[in-house]
Fold 5-demethoxyubiquinone hydroxylase, mitochondrial.
Amino acid sequence: MAAAGALAPALRCSLGRHRALSRAAGRRGRWPFLAEGASLRPCSTRAALDGINKAVVDRIIRVDHAGEYGANRIYAGQMAVLGRSAAGPLIQQMWNQEKDHLRKFNELMIAYRVRPTVLLPFWNVAGFILGAGSSLLGKKGAMACTVAVEESISDHYNNQIRTLMEEDPEKYKELMQIIKQCRDDELEHHDIGLEHDAERFFILRSPWMSFVSVTVMITNLLQCLLCSASVIMRL
């Protein structure tokens, strides 16, 4: 009950700081498959963007950015409840990797001129509540949430890799490497959760996976509607 009582002020404090997380995510992370000192260069000309399937790339980067932002909020919620417990260092370790993912997708948003989803405010609140709420069940509840979310996201990344392979594996090589690295990290988090008794709350796995899948679907649908409305207004 004490943890539940602390949740409300923690949520208010976290909501006030979410912009700081986004700004911090703009700092460049280090990725093993990029040469030392290398970074993505913004596509500064129309010609640089003409060679790619912009619709596919936009959708992939936008959804992945939203997903990594949501993952950061989930771990922020878990740390708000369990940060001072024995599980705190483990959760922080996984959160640090998610911060690195978000930094990389922030770079991709700039490089490919992709606008973020309008659902970021929703992810900000829903992610934190999901992380904090699962943590109120204790460490095993938090790990069960991690397993469900990471499994769903890993499947999503695999689908994106298949899509890019069908498009042109050479043209999208760097983007695919980034997605593969993120997927491997998510699978590592998934396995860590299983190693810490996540199966004890297996009954919650399907609802949490459904939440992530439905949210991704809504993100894509809403973005399509906004794009269609924008085209209609130009006619």
Observations:
- The radius of gyration is 18 Å.
- The longest helix spans residues 205-234.
